[in-house]
Every structure is written in structure tokens, then in C-alpha cells.
Model the fold of this input.
Amino acid sequence: MASDVPAVTNAVRLLERIAREWPEPVATGVLIEDLQLNRSTCYNILGTLQRAGWAASRGERAGWWLGPRLLALADVSQDWVSEVVQVELDSLSKRLGYLSFAVRRHGSGEYSVLAKSDAGSGVRITVGVGDVFPFSAPAIMRAFLAWSDPDEVDQLVVKHGVTAFTRETVVEPSALRDVLATTRDRGYGTSVREYDLGQSGVSAPVFDERGRVTIALCSLAFSSDLNESTVANAGALIRDTGLRITHRIGGQLPIR
Done:
């Protein structure tokens, strides 16, 4: 009878322990202590998992969380959710003519792409499944944070900071709170030349069965196409797409 391979067993144990705290990171010391692993062995396995995209870290002090490639693979087992998201993204992309994609939290401070659709042609913006966006990527951040408790938002902003990607980026705390309130009221977020002067985006949340934002949808286009004159129409379309996905997967809208 075949016996277990220790390195594989320990890799599984590490991933299971990291998954328990998702989306918060787990410190290396905690992993070593909880799993009673040799320090060198733990680092070697984590390094291998990181290179494979199954674990991720921004340095020892930042801790470890599930990697983007593992998250993308995990979605394969959720066929009914994946299919709904993909079908709705395809429809949205065709109606807008822009790149559309879905992201979820990657650790506590980033977002990873889990599905995408691109109906465009020629020179265009693109992303790949597994690509990672920073915490304060404007449109995505607003879709996730607009429905969060204000105190929690303030803590996250202090912890991760808000990057001024361009001169248009809203970074001042009170202005950001106003933007999040507007996002919540109209049901979608916008980013007009805030992440890149040549690009603009719209976003919307997908809620889970407890009324929490579980996925954010985003559409990106060149700012010559998506700008102040077109953003409202694009925002309404992506908002309605998020609501349809929420309904189809059994999610609930949060209590206002």
C-alpha cells in the first residue's frame, strides 16, 4: 500500500491552515508553531507553493494567504457559480464593447481576477485570470468597500493606504467617504482616469447569502471611450449585471 509523502502532506496542512484565516494572512511563525514544522522545512514548502501561485506573501512580516492560481483552480469546483459569472460577463462585455472581469479579495490587501470576457478587437486593455490588483485600485476598491462598515473601511485605509495613481485619484479621507457613499447610493463605482490617465472603469458588487460583497465586477476601457459622458450608462449596466448574478447564486442584498 502506498504511503504518504511527508512534503506533500505538509504542503496540504499549510494550505488548509492558511485557508482557515482567509482572507486574512497567517504569520510564518504561527504556521510553524501550529503545525509543529521544522522552520527550514516550512520556508522551503511555502517558497515552492509561492512559485507555483498556490500561496502568496509580500514578505515574512506580512504573512501568507492563498495564491491567485490556487483560487482560480478552486473555482473549477464551483461550476454553477463560475458558469453564472462567465455567462453574465460575456453578455456585459458584448453590450458595452469593453473588457469585463470579476475579482475577489486576494488576502486582505489585494484583489485577484477569477474570470474575464473581452468582446473588443484591435488595440485594447486586457487582464488575465490570476492577475492581481492593489488594494486601492479605485473602481474595484469602491465596489468592495462601499457596503462595508465605515469603521472597518477607515481601518483598512489606514492599514493599506490609498495610492494616488494619477492626479485624478481621490485620496483625501473625507472625499473618499463621499465617493463611497455615492457608490452605495447608485449601486456602482466609477474611476475616470484615476488608475491610469488613459483608462477608466466602472464596477459593481456581487453579494453572498449574508449580504456581503463576495465578488466585484469591473469593466475597463480607454478614457476616450469611457468618460464623464458615458460612465453613467456603463455603470447602470454593470450594476444590473451584479444584481442578476447575486440573485442567480442565491445572494441577498444588504440591509440598508
Residues 72-248 form a domain with the Beta-Lactamase fold (CATH 3.30.450.40). The longest strand covers residues 213-222. The mean pLDDT is 88.
